[in-house]
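Researcher: I'm preparing a figure for a lab meeting and need a structural model of a single chain. I don't have an experimental structure, so a prediction will have to do for now. The sequence is pasted below. Please return the structure as tokens so I can convert it later.
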Amino acid sequence: MSKEKHHRDWILRRCCGAIAACILTLAVVGFIVLVIYLALHPSKPSFYLLDVQLRSIDLSDPALSLDLQVRTAC
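Model: Understood. Here is the structure written out token by token.
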């Protein structure tokens, strides 16, 4: 009976070790994926309007003509 108990304990330890290894592997892979995502995740660009200058408007033509200068900053 002690051999059978020893064999069951060995199988139990082996299964628990395999489950622990799987959980640890998933945790490490998840951490690596999180670090890569945080380093490379896309963000929306933001622009700020600094200055707008309307230099000329030509209303003599049937089509409206504008000369406009816009300055932005990131």
